[in-house]
Every structure is written in structure tokens, then in C-alpha cells.
Amino acid sequence: MQEIWIDYLNALDAKALALTNDEILDAVSKALDAQGRGETVIEPRVHLVPESSDKGHFNVLRGYVKALNYAGVKVVGDFVDNYKVDLPSELAVLNLFDPNTGVPKAIIDATAITDMRTGAVTALGAKYLARKDSKVLGHIGARGTSYWNVRLLDHLFDFEEIRVHSRRPESRDAFAKRLEADLGKKVVVTDNWEDCLKGADIMVEASRLPEPAPLFKTEWVKKGAFVVPYGTMSALEFDLTDIMDKVVVDDWGQCGPGKPFGALRRHVDEGKVTAETLHAEIGQIVCGMKPGRESDEETILFWHRGLSTTDVALGAAMVDKAKEMNIGQRLRFA
Fold first, then answer.
1. What range does the domain containing 87 cover?
2. Hey, is 138 helix, strand or coil?
3. CATH number of the structural domain spanning residue 246
4. What average pLDDT does the chain have?
5. What is the pTM of this model?
6. Which of 3, 73, 162, 252 is the most buried (most CB within 10 A)?
7. Residue 51 maps to which CATH number?
8. 100 and 219 co-located in one domain
9. Sheet holding 57-65, edge to edge
10. Which top EC class applies here (predicted)?
């Protein structure tokens, strides 16, 4: 048998690669475009819950991107109390494979990938679905993915006002401080949901609720706003979708009936949001198959649960850049 070598990139390697905002957005955009053209395979995520969902769980995401010639499987732990032992709530590993032979090609610390691709999907959703003149961002949540939401959104919109809130004061204060240092602008820290979200042009909800709770009030959403809720447990009032002109998801296969968790889980399971009422998947909009925002008056909601194909795309971009920069290790497999 011929020799098989695997590219290995650990967390330090991923940090050293220092993918730029545009490199991240470009990689994820290509994955979304391929999805819209039907040139991907996205298997709905599955979950492993070791003891109880209160403690945390593992997400297993599987996908294939034809243009990249990679299939991938990512396993990411989501454990809400990890901060108590000085660990991020999400830690992940991505495995890339040759889709023609099954040969393993790369093992990558995907903790940063998870954060970056989530932020990129949020930002690209806004690129196509938010008003072009959006100037106020309201963001709930301060976990890892939140940083890239704000950073990449601001990269595209250059906000006049950024408001943030999370449950723990030390968490939201540290989050705002990091953003101010990296973005070079003032970030407003709020101690409640209403002051953070009400009247914002773009409203992002990435909370860490232990159980569903209607903390995001429909009355706070102004006409023409763009709303992105993606907390594991829903924070929405049930009538929120009633005021939306368009509802967009990342992949209906993993958002549809019978799946666990997610911001619109009750809306889907009780038939308020269906395949028929859905406007589009984001990939269909990115590739030009369906329109995005068509007027400033449209109020639009975008629900994304995490696309395995965007993990694969960012992993491939990291492997390519690592080879150019001579970063990482080569591990003998066979």
C-alpha cells in the first residue's frame, strides 16, 4: 500500500495562520454558492448527549463540497459550564477526507473554525438580507462565535453603534473590551435585552439559555430590520415570525420538523414555519437562484444552525495557507 500522510493543524497553528476577514468570508461564500448550485452534500447534524443536555452535548456535522474535493466530519462539544474550569464552551476537531477513496487528508483543531464560519454565515446573511445602510447592531451573547459575528458584520457595515449584552457582567464587559481593541470603536454594554436589541438595524441573538424562554420581544423589531436568532434554546416570542416578510435558513434538511434544538424549533414543529412558507436557503440566495432583500421595508429573519460544508471550506482554506506558510505537521497514517 502507498504511504498516507495527514496534515495536522493544532490550535497554535490555526492561530498562526491568522486568516483575514476577507479570507474567511471568501471561503464560506464559496461553500454557500456551491450549496445553492446543488454541488454539496449536507447530512443533518446528529447529537451525542453523554448524561444530560443541561451539562452539554456533542454535535457531529458531516458534509461534502465538490469544488474542493473534500468530505469532512466535525465533532464539536458544547458545554455551557466550561468557563468554570477555564475552557471555552466549544471545542472541536475537523477531519477532512478524499471523497473518491476515503483516504484521511487532514486533522484540524476546529474550535476557531466553528467560531469563524458561524460569524461568516451571520455576516454573509446580512450582506444579502440586511439593509445596506444598517448602522446599529444589537448583539446578545458573548461566547466564541459572538466575536466573529460582530467583527465580520462590522467589516461589512462599519456600524455607528454596537450594543452587546450577555448574562454575566464579567463576560459582557470582557467581550466589549476585546471588540473595542480590535475594531477601534466604542462598544455599548447593556445590562438587559431590551436596551441591547430594541430598534437596532441588525439584531443577533446568540444566547446560552438552559431552556427556551421568550426574552426576545417581537415589539422591539422595527420595520426593515434584519434578525438572526441562533441560540441552541429558543429565546423568541412565538409571534415573531408573524411580522417577517421573509424567513431564510441555512439548510432546511437540518432545520425541518423532528430535529432537536434551535431558535425556531417550536415554530417549525407546530407548523408556523414550513418548507412552503420558507423564502429560501441562504445558498440559493448567494448563488443568485433566489432574491435576497428586495426593498428597505422588508423585515427579514435568518436562522442558521451551522453548515458542515462551511467547516470543510474553512478547513481547506487553512490547509492551503498552512502549506504556503510551512505551518503545521505531517503525520504518518499508513
1. 5-113+309-332
2. strand
3. 3.40.50.720
4. 95
5. 0.93
6. 162
7. 3.30.1780.10
8. no
9. 40-48, 57-65, 70-78, 90-97, 104-109, 5-9, 329-332
10. lyase
